[in-house]
Amino acid sequence: xxxxxxxxxxxxxxxxxxxxxxxxxxxxxxxxxxxxxxxxxxxxxxxxxxxxxxxxxxxxxxxxxxxxxxxxxxxxxxxxxxxxxxxxxxxxxxxxxxxxxxxxxxxxxxxxxxx
Length: 115
Prior knowledge:
The chain is α+β, with helices and mostly antiparallel strands. It has a domain at 8-16 and 28-84: atu1810 like domain (Double Stranded RNA Binding Domain, 2-Layer Sandwich). Helix content is 15%, strand content 18%. The termini are far apart.
């Protein structure tokens, strides 16, 4: 099977979300430019799935959204920007666990099962 010529693949510019495995936000401050995955094909001899497009392996980092957009425009890359979701902080105090008017949540399940 011969490789097809590469077409103008669309890129995605976004800021990565914090993973569930980390508590810090260190790797979420950069903007990434990634290409959308191209369609895959099955190798007729071995049956492996493959792709002739290596652009999907690229992850280009930028410090700002504007820098990523400028790079895409200069290189003629069609792109789509995904704006990040701002997280809402819930202020919690450790002292609230011991407040006098606190409703204990662990006793509610026992009270419901006894009635």
